[in-house]
Every structure is written in C-alpha cells, then in structure tokens.
Amino acid sequence: MWAYSFVVPFVAGKGGLSSNALQAVSPFRPDAAVSDICSSETTELADIDWDSLGFAYVPTDYMYTMKCARGGIFSKGELQRFGNIELNPSAGVLNYGQGLFEGLKAYRKEDGNILLFRPEENALRMKIGAERMCMPSPTVEQFVEAVKATVLANKRWVPPPGKGSLYIRPLLIGTGAVLGVAPAPEYTFLIYVSPVGNYFKEGVAPINLIVEHELHRATPGGTGGVKTIGNYAAVLKAQSIAKAKGYSDVLYLDCVHKKYLEEVSSCNIFVVKDNVISTPAIKGTILPGITRKSVIDVARSQGFQVEERLVVVDELLDADEVFCTGTAVVVSPVGSITYKGKRVSYEEGGFGAVSQQLYTALTRLQMGLTEDKMNWTVGLN
C-alpha cells in the first residue's frame, strides 16, 4: 500500500535504539527502558538559552508510540528517536479528523527531581474523548507510565527551576486507512515533548481579549466538550483576525443565545466580582480543563465562593477581575476585554488580588515549592 512520510512536529533524530532496547520499552516497564536509553545519553541539561523560551516547538530526543487495531487493546509501546512518522494518505486523522490530543507539564524542582501535575486526569479525559470519537484508548496506567517514560528519556530538556517547564503532548489518532466516513481500522497513541516558557507573548502581564459574537468554536451536541483536534482548527480564523488587530486572543460566546461566555481559544475563563469567582458551567460545549478544575479546588480550599453557572457577557462590564486558566497559560490575568467596540479594562500592570493568590498557590504546588496536600503531583527520580 502506498504511503508517504507525513511530517508532524518532529525533527528526525540521528541513529536509533537497539532492538533490545525497543523491546524492553513498554508502558509497564519504563524504568528498564529509560535506563537503557540514558546509559548512552548525557544527563546534563540541554545546551539552549533557557531564558529565551517561549511557547514554541523545540525538538527533543525521544518520543513514545503505541498502536492498536480497532476493537483491540493498546500494547507494546516503545520509545524511539524523535522523528517523522509515516501515514497513509487515507489515514482517518487526515481525512476525517479522527484524533485527540492532551497537554500537561513536567517541572524541575530545586533538588533536581521532576514533578508531573495530575497526569491521571489527562488520561481520564482522553478516555472520555476517545469514546466520543469512536476510538480505543490506552488505560490510565498505560497513559501515565508512558508519560513518565517519555519525560525521563528527555529529562535533559526539562528546564531549570523557574525557567519554564517541559510541555508534554500525548496524541491519539486514527492512522488506519479509510475512504468512506467510518472509524479508522488502526490507531496510534504518541507522546512528544518540548521545553516551553510563557504561552502568551505578554508573559504573566495582562492579556487583551476581544469577544467574538459571530464565529463560534462549538455547538450543543458537538465535540466542544472533548479535546479533539478539529476544535482548534475552528478557532484559527477568529484568532488570526483578532491578533492582526493587536488582541492576544478571542473570547467565544454560546452559539444559541450569543450572550453566555464559553471559553477562550485554548483556555477557560473566570470572572471575579466582590470576591466571588464565577466560571461557565461544563455543559458539553466547553472543555473541562484540568487547570480549571484545579483552580476551582484551590479557590474553595482557600475559602472563596466559586460558582459554575451561565455567565452573561454583560457581567464583564463591572467585573473586578477576569482571568484565564489552562495547561499552557496556567493562570493568566486579563487586562482588557473588547465587546462590540466597547473596551473594559481591569487590573493595570499585573494580577488582581484573587488571581494572584490562585496563581501563586497553584504554581508553587506544581513546582514542588509547597506541600502537596491535594496529592496532585507525581515525582520522577
């Protein structure tokens, strides 16, 4: 069957692993695999400018792949040199967008150890998305162990403390060939990683959003509540127009009433008024963000009242603070929102009191700077 080399964001690596090393790597034996790999790799930090990291792709050393036939189970995962993958032109992901992705981060502590943040939540969300997209998925254990193995194999790319994080991108895609509209006959679970800094060019400075009231990212009964790849293609038009006008990103409204807040292109939204924190409820058109969930739990543990409900766009006009949450952005303050030509400004030059408190609490927990009373972090040695 004719196939071609389809370039996803990987750069071909030099050489490869021995067959013994590859056979040793399974999602249930990461220690053996990583020790084989690291024996021939330097454990020193990669030689890059850690102070200049943005949120852009940086090629690393290894990726992880595991395959499964439709109706089967995933097994025999392996680490291999970071490089291109081969896809048939009729692959389900290319023709019909049958694919999901996840995003999570690893942080380096002051003592050199590495922490993951809530990887099992990403595994569970992928399973829910896979069911919606008619795909098999790895078990939670397979997912988490594969993430661990991939991070350890690329540990020299985990930034020094305070310099950023290692962004981890698991993918689940239909790689089998299809012509008619149908689930693919084969699937690939893949993980690659990249060191990153801040998502927005503003860093932790306030971002400026514009409300989009004509284009929409999701519809009731659609796939807005799962992390399918097509959801993000749908935001590119509005986002491109907004950025050309100088805005950081777009805030979307519901497509039925066109008055309720949904989310930003790649993150959830929160509104603060009189120390009450409100965020749009999860009703199938909004991604159930893991950072969103974590911020809600942290806020409630610190005594804040948090409401998950329908939030009307007009509430932005007299809000005290607005902020976004997501794996990439963590907690990002909003400096202004423009809606139908009217610009509303919030905190000048930084976080508001509430968002600052939540940002500090969450990031200190993620980086291992405070006791993890939530049991959210997973240590890698």
From TrEMBL:
Pfam families with a match to the protein in the record: Aminotran_4
A GO biological-process term: branched-chain amino acid biosynthetic process
Gene3D superfamilies the record matches: 3.30.470.10, D-amino Acid Aminotransferase, subunit A, domain 2
Record-linked InterPro entries: Aminotrans_IV (IPR001544), Aminotrans_IV_CS (IPR018300), Aminotransferase-like (IPR036038), B_amino_transII (IPR005786), BCAT-like_C (IPR043132), BCAT-like_N (IPR043131), BCAT_family (IPR033939)
GO terms assigned for molecular function: branched-chain-amino-acid transaminase activity
The protein's Enzyme Commission number: 2.6.1.42
Enzyme type, top EC level: transferase
Pathway: Amino-acid biosynthesis; L-valine biosynthesis; L-valine from pyruvate: step 4/4; Amino-acid biosynthesis; L-leucine biosynthesis; L-leucine from 3-methyl-2-oxobutanoate: step 4/4; Amino-acid biosynthesis; L-isoleucine biosynthesis; L-isoleucine from 2-oxobutanoate: step 4/4
Record PTM N6-(pyridoxal phosphate)lysine, positions in chain: 227
Record keywords, A-Z: Amino-acid biosynthesis, Aminotransferase, Branched-chain amino acid biosynthesis, Pyridoxal phosphate, Transferase
Cellular component GO terms held in the UniProt record: chloroplast
Recorded catalytic activity of this chain's protein: L-leucine + 2-oxoglutarate = 4-methyl-2-oxopentanoate + L-glutamate; L-valine + 2-oxoglutarate = 3-methyl-2-oxobutanoate + L-glutamate; L-isoleucine + 2-oxoglutarate = (S)-3-methyl-2-oxopentanoate + L-glutamate
Superkingdom assignment: Eukaryota
Cofactor(s) of this protein: pyridoxal 5'-phosphate
Sequence similarity: Belongs to the class-IV pyridoxal-phosphate-dependent aminotransferase family.
Name by which UniProt lists this protein: Branched-chain-amino-acid aminotransferase
Organism expressing this protein natively: Hevea brasiliensis (Para rubber tree)
